[in-house]
TrEMBL record:
EC number, UniProt record: 2.7.4.6
InterPro entries linked to this entry: NDK-like_dom, NDK-like_dom_sf
Pfam families: NDK
Nucleoside diphosphate kinase-like domain: residues covered: 147-202
Molecular function per GO: nucleoside diphosphate kinase activity
The protein's required cofactors: Mg(2+)
Name the record gives this protein: nucleoside-diphosphate kinase
Alphabetical list of PROSITE patterns matching this protein: NDPK_LIKE
Key words, A-Z: Kinase, Transferase
Amino acid sequence: AARMFAPSRELIEEYAEAVMTSGGKEEKNIKIINEIKNYLFTNYLRREESDFPPRVMLLFFEGDNVIEELKRVVGHITKISIGETIRGTYGDYIEKKGRIAYFEPAVLIGSDEEGIEQELKIWAKYSKTDGGILEKIISYPPEIKLEKTLVLIKPDSFQELSSKVGNIIDRFSQTGLFIIGAKVIHMGVREAEEFYAPIKERLAEKMKGKLLKEIRSS
């Protein structure tokens, strides 16, 4: 599943509390957890009243050993391996004289099953009020003619172990446009027929050539 959020202060307060509760009692853990809390309040909420709220994309994964697999892909929060993980590419952690001088985790993930369950309940609680299609949260200059459009990332992009989906989203981010909604859809035949009805003839013409080519080569 996927969902866009513009988190409220109430959501971030509850989420930060859950992160701190599941972070452990060791001194080193407490230091990092406090830094995560500061990061949340600094980066997940608007800094000035005139700013538009930051947008957050929540991704929900399932699979064999999914918690540990995500930890491997995301990387350690302090031991950064340059280029080998998400945090190795987009994150940073710098300590000077025992103090954290710079902290950028890039993404935040759960650490264990119990903590993740609690964190998901919090995001679900605010799903309707803070999530969904994030309309009217971005201020545009008056001369802008505001339009909206839809992009479908086709199913086969998700069926292979590759960075294809991420690269596609990255290209959209480079346009300067704003992603205001995201959803994973399991489309049935009836829904597909309804969705593609306006371009049915164009699709049929496009697929005809491909089918003829396959028939001739078989």
